[in-house]
Fold:
Amino acid sequence: MADITRRLGRRHLRAAPTAHIRHHRGGQLLHDGPGLSFWFRALTAALSEVPVDDRELAMTFHARTSDFQDVAVQATVTYRVSDPALASARLDFSVDPDTGVWRGAPLEQLGTLLTETAQQHALDVLARTTLASALVDGVAAVRERVAAGLAAEPRLPATGIEVVAVRVVALRPEPEVERALRTPAREQIQQEADRATYERRAVAVERELAIAENELASQIELARREERLVEQRGTNTRREAEEHAAADAVHAEAEATRSVRLARAEAEAAREVGQARAQAQAAWLRVHADVDVATLHALTGARLAENLPSIESVTVSPDVLTGLLAKLGGRDRT
Structure:
């Protein structure tokens, strides 16, 4: 919308760079171009403002396929006014000289023209297509047909309109049909998911089995090594026992030999000592054989006295003394 201000009974218009302004007065074109700024009189001026920027027109319409199924088509058409003079001549782009607002609704007229033209070509292509084909390839087919139809539409160039691009956003059936169509796909997806889950579980089981087998093999190998270790330890223990037994046998044999030798030496010494004692005793007996009895008694008493304990004092009664003297006297007489 153009910016119009009042100054002393006159008007000043200032347009945006994307707005093409046409100013007529008395049937003459005084100003023509985008982004203009000028003074004018409201009573004599005829102003038109044509937007020359790219415009997006969103449209939604319903169509029926060859198998009598309703579908909703969502599309967007990008267009621009390529000939502002022709567009302003064919459509009412005039603006109020006091407010700068369009007197009519030119963009709505353009929108209706583009929507009806696009809808006509979309209905034509969908009417010869089944619902299944339309859901698979319908978006591309509708886009190409609508773009070709708009490019070949003679009314658009005659109005100064240029179509820049056509986009088909979606092509959807009715909700009930869409749910019915989604069910097999969902079931297939669920089946694929279940199969993938089962495959993952099978792979996991196989891996766990492989791990268990590896662990079992490791345990078996460890048991074998432990068995070998036990056997080696038994062998070592047996060898140590044999070596200890051999050492003990050698030691015992040495001790026995030494004991025998010692016993023999002791026996030899005892025999020699006995022989010496026997010889001494024989000599002692030979010496005392020729001695009289009284001498032997004296020697016996002396020997006995040597072995008796020491006597501090001896008390002899008269009877004992008398008997002894009597015995001694009798011996002297004999």
The first helix runs from residue 84 to 90. The chain has a mean pLDDT of 85. The beta strands are 3-7, 10-14, 19-25, 28-34, 37-40, 45-51, 55-64, 70-81, 161-173. The first strand starts at residue 3 and ends at 7.
